[in-house]
Amino acid sequence: MRLLINRMKTAFCTIGVALVLFGALAVLDKNNDFSLAQRESAHKFGATYMTMNNPFFEVIDETVRATVESNGDILITRDPALDAVRQTQQIYDLIDEGVEAIFIAPVDFEKIIPAVEYGREKGVKIIFVDTEIYDETLADCIVVSDNYHAGVLCAGYLLQKKAEGKILIFEHPTTKSSNDRVEGFVDTMEMNGNFEIVGRLDYAGQLEIAMPLMIDELKKGTDFDVVFSINDVGALGVMAALKDYGKLDGISVLGVDGAPEAKSMIREKIMLATSAQYPSEIGQNAVDQLYNMIEGRPAEKRIKVSVNLISEENINEFSTKGWQ
């Protein structure tokens, strides 16, 4: 009898342990199911900016990502590296991956139109950042700096500082943001006949292209004393070339962005001025409007973020350690 009782106790213990283990496994399964359900319910978005070789786009992406991930959602970022064909394929790929929206800073707006149209047919929200587009019907939202005014500010400040000059313009004509900045600059400079534009150089918005182009102009003996670059990256490349050739003194360099390095150059009185953009504000506005759209709240179709001139007169109001 005693042996039977002991055997029964052992059996009940075994059953108890089994029940505990079963319960633990059930909890784990439940947790796994919850985690899986959470992942499956997450919104998935895409982003393809002009190039991630420009810190400006890094700031936009970091701002968007911070909000997306804080909501438990997913952001897939691709770098087209200034290749419109690659960016077009990236848009198709992101759509095929099932994203609900794509943030785009176009390398060449005209070339990505078929991919954008395909996305809209599939119900994908298209949000353009940093650059205006020529057909706003293709956008669910556009968030840009006041690019025309950025050019106006640089030109207006130049007119205050110089009575005359010969100007080289470094531009990126496949992007509307560049064209708007140049247009604002040129329109303002045309008010004074003492200034002449002696050249317009396409550097694709890249330092490594701006620098050799500037060297070529120096070798050719081009007569100029002002450079307007459509971004600070180009302005930095220009100044590096001018420094190497001992020509930095006497050349007034202006840019657009308000990049930390440009602000340092202004503080050291090497660069004349920059029209400051606010990339974190652009990114935050863009992601806020996306969530308004997908959650059924009213969303703004077009947002223009203000720009401000940074020069020696107000440089101490801005930090050189980061963006605005």
Mind summarizing the main beta sheet?
6 strands, parallel
What fold name goes in the CATH topology slot of the largest domain?
Rossmann fold
What is the SS-derived class?
alpha/beta
The amount of helix comes to 40-55%
Global geometry:
elongated
The CATH architecture category of the largest domain equals 3-Layer(aba) Sandwich
N- and C-termini, Cα separation = 85 Å
Unreliable spans are 1-34
Number of helices: 10
- The overall strand count is 12
CATH class of the largest domain: Alpha Beta
Q: How do the SSEs run, as a string of H and E?
A: HEHEHEHEEHEHEHEHEHEHEE
Strand percentage? 15-25%
State the CATH superfamily name of the largest domain. Response regulator
Features:
324 residues, alpha/beta, Rossmann fold, 3 domains, 6-stranded parallel β-sheet, 6-stranded mixed β-sheet, disordered N terminus
